[in-house]
Design goal:
Helix content: over 70%
Oligomer: single chain
């Protein structure tokens, strides 16, 4: 591996991604156990304890993934897609914090996730998944004009992805997007009656 630094970086990325996938599975299992406990007639302390254990294991795996990712970033700050991986880690940690009722911690994790995607978007402005994830995470904090610009850039080189359609059809954003697109049409001289 000393002779192939690129292989070392790729292996660090894969290791971090693998740890994150394991954490996502633990989070899904915790959510399933919590759901089954809520659906029951009486609280099941065993299911609750197992859900808490899964959540703790998820957080440990997220920390491992984050540590591995930091090793990668320290060796190669511009490594492609590390921001998207950092985003996934922070979203998972935010969901865990929200499950525990820690709203401030969840918001901080979501802020870190948005910042990671924004950094990745500067490196890969034409990646539709990163653009859609960023616009979806930013929500109403991002004005419709900027959101449309970020979503339109990848369309120059890629097809529309499902995440784009979900954002365009979101009833909370539909009127904002319609108004912004009318402004664009007017500026381009393609007004429709």
């Amino acid at each position: 591996d000393r002779l192939s630094p690129q292989r070392v970086l790729i292996n660090l990325f894969r290791l971090s991604n693998t740890e994150l996938i394991a954490a996502e599975r633990k989070a899904a299992r915790a959510a399933d156990r919590d759901r089954r406990d809520r659906e029951g007639d009486t609280p099941n302390p065993r299911l609750q304890a197992m859900a808490v254990e899964d959540l703790q294991a998820m957080e440990g795996l997220c920390k491992d993934a984050s540590h591995t990712l930091k090793s990668l970033i320290s060796a190669s700050p511009g490594f492609v897609n590390h921001g998207h991986l950092e985003h996934r880690i922070n979203v998972l940690l935010a969901q865990g914090a929200a499950w525990r009722g820690e709203k401030d911690a969840a918001q901080a994790y979501y802020g870190n996730a948005a910042a990671a995607l924004e950094r990745e978007l500067t490196r890969q402005p034409f990646d539709p998944t990163i653009a859609a994830d960023f616009v979806g995470l930013a929500g109403k904090r991002l004005d419709a004009n900027t959101a449309l610009t970020l979503l339109a850039r990848p369309l120059r080189y890629n097809r529309i992805i499902e995440a784009d359609l979900r954002l365009f059809l979101d009833p909370n954003r539909r009127e904002d997007f319609a108004q912004a697109s009318r402004v664009w049409e007017t500026a381009a001289g393609t007004d429709r009656p």
